[in-house]
Prior knowledge:
Layout: H1 16-27, H2 30-45, H3 49-70
Amino acid sequence: ILNIPPSGYHVPNGNPEALAEKLSLLIGNPELREKLGNQAAELASKYSWKRIAKKVSKSYLRNILRSEAID
């Protein structure tokens, strides 16, 4: 799954022509490579272990509190 803005290109498996096309596009366009690289790094930062652990902890706490309110 690629988010918008794109952080890369999807190339169908077993399609060397499509792969060559996208590689040629990236090789010939340093600005695009940098833009996609920056967007990919920003997207990846959203999935750091620290950030994921914080979200999971919040979710557990919210569910524990909700469960206690029901009991």
